[in-house]
Amino acid sequence: MKRFLIGFLTGDLLLVLFVVAYLRFGLANVAADAPTPAWETRWMFSSAHASIRRTVPHDLKSPIPTSDETLIAGGKLYLNDCVGCHGAPGKPPSDFGATFYPPAPQLARDGTTYSEPEIYWVARHGVRRTGMSEQGSSYSDEHLWQLAAFISHITTLPPQVRSAIEPSAGH
Amino acid sequence: MKTFLLGIVSALVVLPIGALAYFRLGLAETRSDARPPAWETRVMTSAVRASVRRRASSIQSPPPENLDDAIVAGGKLYFEGCAGCHGQPGKAGQDLSHYPSVPQLWQVGTKYSEREIHWIIQHGIRNTAMSAYGPFYSDKQLWALARFVRRIDNLPAGLLERIQAKRPPTAKN
C-alpha cells in the first residue's frame, strides 16, 4: 500500500512536471488564428456553460418585462457594442469575431442555448480566457437585462422589433 | 516494484479524469472580472513568451526603410486599432475587464522583439482577448506596428507629436 502511494505521488509529480516543461519550452502553440479543434470547442463551451449554470444565483430573474420596448432598447445596445464580434441580425457573420480563439459565438446567426439570467451574467461578468470582457462596469443593470432579453430572442425577433432597430428604418 | 508502477499508472489515469470532471461539473470559475493569481500569470506569461520566441524566430526581416517614418506609421495604426485596449499615453490605469488583463503598453512597454511583436499581432494569442490581425493588416503595416510598439515607452524625441498630428508633413505627395 505504501509503495502504491509513493508510485501514485510520483505519477502526479511526473504529470505536473511534464505539463510545466511543455509550457516552458514553448511547445504549446499560442497562435489564435489556427482553427479550434471541434472537440476543444465542444469541451470548453460546455465547461463554461456548466460553470455559469452553477454560479448564477437560482433566484436571479429579470426585473423588467419582455416587451417590444425592452427588446428594442436591448437591440439598440447590441447594435452599438456587440455586433462587432457577435454579428448583426440578417447580416453575414462577423469576420472580426472569427479572429478570436475561441471564436466569438455568432449570436445573430446561431442564437444561444443560455437562459436570460445566464446571458445577463455573462454580459456582466465576462468569460475568462476569451475575448469576452466584463461589461458590468460600463452598463447599468437595466441595460444588461435589456441586452439579455434581446439576445435570448435574437433569432426569433418579432418583425416590428426587427424593423425598429434597423438603422435604415429609423424614419 | 509492481505496486509502485501500479501507483504511477493510477496517477496518470486519475489526474486527467479529475481535471476533466472538474471542468465538466462547472467547478472552473469563468468570470473575467477578477484578477488572475500571481502564479497563474507567471506560468502563462512565460509559456506564451517561450512559444512566441520559438515560432517567431523564422520570420523574415523586413525590407530596409526609414525607421522614424515606420514608427510614425505604426503609431497612427496603433491609435486607430490598439489604443482602445492597450492604452493611451499619459493615462495611467489598469485593465480590469479582461482575464488575463490586457498589458497597458505605455506604462509597461514590452519585452518582445520586433519580430515577436509582428508575430503576435498577425496571429493573436490564444485564450486571451488578443485576436489575430493578420487578415486586416498588410505585412508592411505589421512591421510598422512592431517598430512602434517595441519603442512605445521610450519613443525617439518628436515622434509622438508627428504621430498625433492631424496630417503628417509628407501628406501632400
Q: Extract low-pLDDT stretches of chain A.
A: none
Q: Describe the biggest sheet of chain A?
A: none
Tell me, briefly, the overall form of chain A.
elongated
Greatest interface (CB-CB under 8 A), with counts per chain: A-B, 56 and 56 residues
Topology:
The complex is a heterodimer of chains A (171) and B (173).
Chain A: H1 2-24, H2 38-55, H3 68-81, H4 83-86, H5 107-110, H6 116-125, H7 141-152, H8 159-165
Helix pairs in contact in A: 3-7, 3-8, 6-7
Chain B: H1 2-24, H2 38-56, H3 67-81, H4 83-86, H5 105-108, H6 114-123, H7 139-150, H8 159-164
Helix pairs in contact in B: 2-6, 3-7, 6-7
Main features:
heterodimer, A: mainly alpha, Cytochrome Bc1 Complex, Chain D, domain 2, B: 173 residues, mainly alpha, 54% helix, elongated
Structural overview:
The complex is a heterodimer of chains A (171) and B (173). By secondary structure, chain A is an all-alpha fold. Chain A has helices spanning 2-24, 38-55, 68-81, 83-86, 107-110, 116-125, 141-152, 159-165. In chain A, helix 3 (68-81) packs across helix 7. Chain B has 173 residues and is an all-alpha fold. Chain B has helices at 2-24, 38-56, 67-81, 83-86, 105-108, 114-123, 139-150, 159-164. In chain B, helix 2 (38-56) packs across helix 6 (114-123) and helix 3 (67-81) packs across helix 7. The longest helix of chain B has 23 residues, at 2-24. The chains are: A mainly alpha (171), B mainly alpha (173). The interface between A and B is large, with 56 and 56 residues.
Overview in brief:
Chain A has 171 residues and is mainly α. Chain A contains 8 helices and no strands.
